[in-house]
Structure formats: C-alpha cells, structure tokens
UniProtKB/TrEMBL annotation:
Residues 1-285 form the Nucleolar protein 11 N-terminal domain. One of its GO terms (cellular component) is nucleolus. Keywords: Activator, Nucleus, rRNA processing, Transcription, Transcription regulation. Its main location: nucleus. PANTHER family: NUCLEOLAR PROTEIN 11. This is NOL11 protein. It comes from Aegotheles bennettii. It is found in: Nucleus, Nucleolus. It comes from the Eukaryota. One of its GO terms (molecular function) is RNA binding. Residues 364-672 form the Nucleolar protein 11 C-terminal domain. One of its GO terms (biological process) is maturation of SSU-rRNA.
Length: 673
C-alpha cells in the first residue's frame, strides 16, 4: 500500500463472477476465493493462471469467507451453515445445514477469543433483524432478536470482542449509533432472546446531520463514520468523520469531493476507504480519551490523557501542512494518492515558541529565493523526527507551488538534494515528477526513477516518451549519471567500444551470420565487431533508468500502445542491443552500476512487442530488426537445447568429482555416451 504498487493480479474466465471477497490464509500463505457462489479456488503468489489452481465445487452457496490469523479461514454459507476451510476441504460436497430458513444475511464478522474462533452474523426477515453467534470449537449456535427502534432500522454493523463479551454497534437510519452487548459465556439453550439496544451516539453537530453509510471501530471510545454531512437547506457533502463515543463529540472530519462508494476498513491502525477511483489510506493512533481532548480544550500536550488522531490542514494556496504543535492530534495526512509511510505516530514535544512546518512555510511564502532555499535546507537538516517523510512531503509541495506560481523559478540543485536524501517518494508529492517532466529535467527524472519505489506506470511511460524524443545534441550538454553504461558503451563516440574480456555464450558469429546482417546507420556508434548502439550514452543511461523502474505489465501496456511508432522502433533497437550484450557474457550480466538485468530487458522487449507488433510488422525499417531478433533468439534456443541434452552427463561428472580422491596430479579420461 505504501508504494502503491500491485503485487499480483489474477482473473477468472469470461462469464465467471467472484461472488465474495478474496481472503488470505495466514497459515498456508494462500489466497481463497469463491466464484459463481459455489466454486472454491485456492492459489499461491507464484500461480499465474486461476484455471490451473485448486478447485472445489461446494454443495451450497457461500456468503463470505473470514480469515483469522491463528484460526484459519471460516466459511459462512448463505443458509447460515458454518465450516472451517480444513473441514470443508475434506469433503467439499458434504451437506450444509440450512439454519436461517427465509432470512437474508446482512453482515458477518469473525474473531479469535481465548484461542477459539467465534463467528457473528446478522439477518433480516420481514423488517425484523436477528443476530447469530457461532462458537466453532464448541459447535454451539445462539440466535437473538434485535430490539426494534421506532421508525428506523439498522443500515450497517460492526463489532469487537473483549473479555468474553461481543460489543455489536449498529448504525440506524435515524442517524444514530446503538450498542448491543452479547455475552459469550451463555451456554443454555434458550428460545430466541431479545437483545436490548442502548444509544451510543447521535450523528449530528451544530444543526448538521451525518447520513452514515458505513463505520468502523477504532478503539473502545472512537469510531470512524463514512457518509454525507448536511444542514437544512444546504447541499450534502460526503465526508469521513471521527467520533468520540464516550463524550459523544465529533473529533474531526474530512470532506471527500470525489465521492465514495461507502466501503471502509480498519486494519493495524490504518483506515482504508474509497475516494473516487482511489483507495485512500490514513494512519491514526488512539490513546486514552479525556473530556478535555474530546472538546479540544487540552492545553498540556505532555499529559498522558491525550487523544492522538488525524489532522488535515490545507492552506489557501494548497500547501499541505504538518503541525507538530497540535494538542489535539498528530498531523498525519492522506490527500487522495498521498501516502505517508511513517510508521511511528507520536506527538512531537516542542517549545511553545517553536514554529511548526506550516507556520514556517507561511512565513517564507514571500521570502526571496536565497532566503527560502536556505531556510528549507536548515529545516531539512534539523528534521530528525519520526515524521520526517511527512515534513519533506510538505516542504516539496510548497516548492512545487512556488514553481507553478513563478515559472522562472526552478531550484534543480535543491530538488536533487532532497531526492538523493532518500526520504522522498512519489506518493508524498505527485506534482514533483510532473513539474520535472514539464521542465524536461532529464537528470532529475533519472534520479527519481532510480530512487522512487512507487512511480505510477503513467509517469514511467511519460519519462520514456520524453527520453526517446529528446535530441542527442541536447543531451550531450546535460550532466547526468553514466554509471549504468560507461562499461559497455564508448562515451567518447569513437568507432570502437570499451569492453572487458568477453566469453561468447553459445553464440558463434560465423555460424549465425544472419544475425549480424543489420545495416549500419551513419549515426550509430560503431564497434570493432560491427555491433552498434542505436542511441548515445546519455540517452542510454536515461533508458536504463526506465528499465530499472518498478512497474506492472497490466498497467503499463495500455500506455505503451500510445508510444509513437518511430520511438517504439528505436527503443526496441536499444533493447535488442542490450540483449545481445547480455548474451555475450557467460553470466548474462552487464557491467556497471544500475545496469539493467537480462530479465528486465526481456520483460520490456516482450511488452513493447505486445503493444506494437502489428505496427512493427508493417514498418519497413522494423522488418529487418524483427528478423534479426528472431534469428538471434532462435540461436539461443538451439544452444540451450544442446545444453539440456548433456545436462545428465554433466551431473554425473560432478558426482564423480566428489567420489574420487584425486592425488596432487592425475590424468583421467572420461567417455560421454
């Protein structure tokens, strides 16, 4: 999540539908999914095709699978039956009892309480709501009926368990949250018992009412609610709110202008929710709640009874602020795609006269360039705090705002210092690389590609397109890092290449003359063996940075299809050149720092061919290149095929070497059959 990079992607066949959320089996490190209600699939990270993974067809429709860290997955069927995954896999077609008859399951959750898995789910029938509690090890099931509220009904549920008591919180249509306590120690088989509800919170403040859609428990005194907040006569605005249930106060709120689907989760002190098309992650930290903190009157930030939360501050000129003086909360911010990856969220102890980062940036808003940059450097050198990344994100955002307001202002050296410090990532300031692209600052982009782990594929493609389109003459005037190419490309543009000793890797130029039939162009950098690099060393270094950048093929391919045909051919020529250079080395590794690996070269070559194969087949200048590439790959396949034939003999030789105790000098004749 912090790097905003997908780690895996799997698809079902056309016409199949995944019918409940996929979970991870923590014990076996496998994924468990259900499609078309009854078909169970189990696979691991290394699996690629879902058609080839474990499949089991069950006898009843599945409602939800819950995964417990130390209890394994638990499967809840639409009829109310419950099985652990292990029991279910022993006999997938076993009969599943129907517990709830005509009722419809609305919500479910699973817990581990005293090493025992407990499942709770709610159902609805004809306007009545019921609660079921299943203790799997004891095979006991208890049914309760929720007390009805006049003219309102439950919209969503959440729960937690502590000291053998389940606390069920219900968000009702009358904009209120109610609490229900369910003891787990109850063993008597009574008839349906009615659970009484107690009012916890009215979701209204200063005449504004929150129409909640979903909510989660942060701790025993705080909840997060997602919904629409509006006053009479005003247009409603979707927002995320944090409420103190102990003192019934609104702690903080955040408007969501892009809207939300209403989905929200809470895991390991992080809130996950959808905002437009973005999954937003916000870190939080709860401490002991006090009345002073709840109403915002806490004066002493060092008092242990503080409530640390989220704080969103946006200045008029959109400079994001992190205030370390806030007595009410730690400044932790997530603005759409901005992700703060600091894992320690503590209240910073500062002197009352110390300026916060936001106040300092406001003070420097109209300062001269030299004063502004000196103050920023001083701030960077002093910012040895757990929230250093948050500070840097705010500082860089302020610099980007100044660059936008004053087009002639662009502190390249300062920006390079910040990137090379290693504390900045793309997600902390998405405008950073956008401004560098606009300024065509290829050196800064090269460093960003080498250091940022979370660059979106769209930006990676934009860098590639810029690097391919920019002229060689312009690049010769630009200082940049050539460490990735200096060992295998002649940086003085002479007609020979600087090489180390080369061991041919199963390739003989005399046997495969067709490989080297490619015509030498005038602008190419010739070598002693008639090989050539289609680009200069500066452009090669930039392209190597792109090859090194982490990316996902599924998300990169649509952008690559937009690459102009001539640029695609040039890029393929360079990839082919690198492929040949790698194949010359016995370890298939290029010399130098940050040089691309054979896997990266092959992945990009396949991606580029997938995106532009039809166009390249039609282009006359690409036909010869594709033919040469085909012949070279064919030679490599033939060579490795021959190696496979003698693999058994080589293994036997290795065994003989270990078995025999050779003297200081000996001659052995071994016959290979």
């Amino acid at each position: 999540v912090s790097d905003q990079k997908p780690l895996g992607c799997w698809s079902v066949k056309h016409g199949q539908i995944i019918t409940c959320p996929v979970v991870c089996n923590f014990e076996t490190h496998e994924y468990v999914a259900v499609h078309d209600d009854k078909v169970l699939r189990i696979w691991k990270n290394k699996d690629i095709n879902l058609d080839k993974v474990f499949k089991a067809t069950l006898s009843a429709d599945v409602y939800r699978i819950h995964s417990l860290p130390k209890g394994g997955p638990v499967v809840l069927f639409r009829g109310g039956g419950v099985r652990t995954l292990d029991v279910l896999l022993e006999a997938p077609q076993q009969e599943i009892e129907n517990v709830i008859s005509d009722e419809v399951i609305k919500w479910s959750e699973a817990f581990m309480e005293r090493h025992q898995p407990v499942l709770i789910f709610t159902t609805e029938k004809d306007g009545d709501f019921f609660v079921y509690v299943q203790k799997l090890k004891m095979n006991s099931l208890h049914k309760y009926k929720l007390e009805q509220q006049e003219l309102s009904k439950p919209l969503s549920f959440t729960a937690y368990v502590k000291n053998q008591v389940i606390t069920l919180l219900c968000l009702y249509s009358n904009d209120s949250v109610y609490r229900v306590l369910i003891p787990l120690q109850k063993n008597t088989e009574e008839e349906e018992q009615i659970l009484s509800t107690s009012l916890v919170l009215n979701l209204s403040v200063s005449g504004r009412v929150l129409k909640g859609t979903s909510f989660v428990v942060l701790d025993k005194d705080h909840i997060a609610v997602l919904g629409s907040l509006a006053a009479s006569g005003e247009e409603s605005k979707e927002c995320l709110t944090i409420w103190n249930t102990k003192f019934q106060t609104l702690q903080t709120s955040k408007e969501l202008p892009l809207g939300t689907s209403g989905q929200m989760w809470c895991y390991e002190e992080k809130i996950f929710y959808t905002h437009g098309k973005v999954l937003t992650v916000i870190m939080y930290k709860c401490e002991t709640s006090s009345l002073a903190a709840a109403v915002g009157k806490l004066k002493n930030s060092q008092t242990p009874d503080t409530s640390s939360f989220l704080n969103w501050n946006t200045l008029e000129d959109e400079e994001l602020v992190v205030s370390f003086q806030s007595e009410e909360s730690v400044a932790l911010k997530s603005e759409s795609q901005m992700t703060l990856r600091s894992k320690k969220n503590t209240v910073e102890k500062v002197q009352p006269d110390t300026l916060s980062v936001g106040q300092l940036l406001l003070k420097l808003k109209d300062a001269t360039t030299s004063v502004f940059e000196n103050e920023v450097r001083q701030l960077m050198s002093k910012a040895q705090t757990p929230d250093l990344q948050a500070i840097i994100g705010c500082v860089v955002t302020a610099i980007m705002n100044r660059c936008k307001a004053h087009p002639k202002y662009y502190p390249q050296h300062l920006l390079l210092e910040i990137v090379e410090s290693g504390d900045l990532s793309y997600s902390l300031c998405p405008d950073f690389m956008a401004v560098a692209l606009e300024k065509q600052d290829v050196y800064l982009l090269q460093v960003c590609l080498q250091r940022f782990p979370d660059i979106p594929e769209e930006i990676t493609y934009a860098c590639l397109k810029l690097f391919l389109s920019i002229s060689e003459a312009y690049l010769q005037e630009v200082d940049m890092n050539l460490e990735s190419v200096i060992c295998y490309i002649d940086i003085e543009f002479k007609n020979k290449e600087v090489k180390s000793e080369i061991v041919e890797n199963g390739f003989n130029a005399e046997l495969e003359q067709g490989v080297w039939d490619t015509k030498i162009r005038k602008k190419a950098h010739l070598t002693a063996d008639s090989e050539f690099c289609p680009v200069g060393p500066q452009k090669a270094a930039l392209l190597n940075a792109v090859l090194h950048s982490a990316c996902t093929e599924t998300f990169l391919l649509p952008h690559l299809k937009n690459l102009p045909a001539q640029q695609a051919v040039l890029f393929l020529r360079y990839l082919y050149y690198l492929y040949v250079k790698c194949s010359e080395k016995i370890n298939t590794t290029l010399p130098g720092t940050h040089s691309p690996t054979i896997s990266q070269i092959m992945d990009w070559m396949c991606l580029l061919l997938d995106a532009h194969f039809t166009v390249m087949v039609m282009l006359p200048e690409a036909k010869e290149l594709l033919s040469s590439l085909h012949k070279f790959v064919r030679a490599q396949v033939r060579f490795y095929s021959e190696l496979n034939k003698i693999e058994g003999s080589l293994q036997e030789l290795q065994k003989l070497k270990h078995q025999k105790d050779s003297q200081i000098y000996s001659i052995e004749v071994l016959e290979l059959i």
